[in-house]
Amino acid sequence: MAAWVRVLVLVACLLPVLVECQIIRHYKFNVVMKNTTRLCSKKPIVTVNGKFPGPTIYAREDDTVLVKVVNHVKYNLSIHWHGIRQLRTGWADGPAYITQCPIQPGQNFVYNFTITGQRGTLWWHAHIFWLRATVHGALVILPKLGVPYPFPTPYKELVVVLGEWWKSDVEAVVDEAMKSGLAPNVSDAHTINGHPGPASNCLSQGGFNFKVKSGKTYMLRIINAAMNEELFFKIAKHKLAVVEVDATYVKPFNIDTIVIAPGQTTNVLLKAGLSAGKYLVAASPFMDAPIAVDNKTATATLHYSGTLSSTATTLTAPPPHNATSIAANFTDSLRSLNSKKYPAKVPIKIRPFPSFHHWTWCQPLCYLCQW
């Protein structure tokens, strides 16, 4: 074998060691209609890949993500990657008529962005009209390979998406609000991973089941995908150890109830410290102003392995919807992790008269968008 060939073979063998390969994650979103039954009533909804909530995107810090979105429905749409820092890829951010023309029916678009300096739980959602009521899902960014969490590694991770459900077509709801000049009608139910749980007008519907093993610790990646409402979240007889908010590590603290605003994410560690049983998981609204909200509580079940399905569920009472003290107890407990690896970069010098500038930029092509 010629000497130059041997050199090429040697370089090829060593290259993976010398150069850290960039991983590209490929996903395909088929936006389709799906007949879905909730509250004992069926209606067609807009979904991604026929799922509600939509599929979870998994990636690691520094990965590149490519998502091909194919629009099979009658609506224009776009997808926003909520919380992703679009460094030199602002065109991939997703707001329709702002950074891109919407994807028209029968058309497709490829989102291409690199996750830089971020890890944790974020989410994606439609960014036009009210389509995000059903077009949304989790975006999980794992740390780089070999980089541990700044807390004990959980046995398993579970995605928990909180949302709202209208019996009516959500586009009809917002259209009526625009015509009347009034606030949109409140939702008919809240949901946990797409399910409201048993309701007074539909006792036969089940809620979502979280299956756990006694003695194990789980990380719940909680996302509030509701349109407008802050939500309380709690689990009967269990404490939640808060370790991250909006893809930023925080000093861990234990609490009974968290509050999470629309668009926010919170990661908690759940110790399945009981021997057996079924325990109620509840998501209910927080509103301490005289504003109408959907006052219904979504429920799910924390189901310990080995527990019979016929076992009675241990209940918990949701906080009053105006429980400001409970919400404040959560927000007042939040502190930056501020470790050596994850410092809190707070400026030492503060400008006494800061100025803010806001502008909207649109590609020339957007002026040709069909409204």
UniProtKB/TrEMBL annotation:
- The EC number(s) attached to this protein equal 1.10.3.2
Classification via Pfam families: Cu-oxidase, Cu-oxidase_3
Organism, scientific name: Nyssa sinensis
Q: This protein is called what? A: laccase
The UniProt keywords, alphabetically, are: Apoplast, Copper, Lignin degradation, Metal-binding, Oxidoreductase, Repeat, Secreted, Signal
Q: Give the reaction(s) catalysed.
A: 4 hydroquinone + O2 = 4 benzosemiquinone + 2 H2O
Q: Which Gene3D superfamilies match?
A: Cupredoxins - blue copper proteins
Query: Which GO cellular component does the record give, naming just one?
Result: apoplast
UniProt lineage: Eukaryota, Viridiplantae, Streptophyta, Embryophyta, Tracheophyta
- Cofactor(s) the record lists: Cu cation
What is the residue range of the signal peptide feature?
A: 1-21
Task: Tell me which InterPro entries the record gives.
Answer: Cu-oxidase-like_N (IPR011707), Cu-oxidase_2nd (IPR001117), Cu-oxidase_fam (IPR045087), Cupredoxin (IPR008972), CuRO_1_LCC (IPR034288), CuRO_2_LCC (IPR034285)
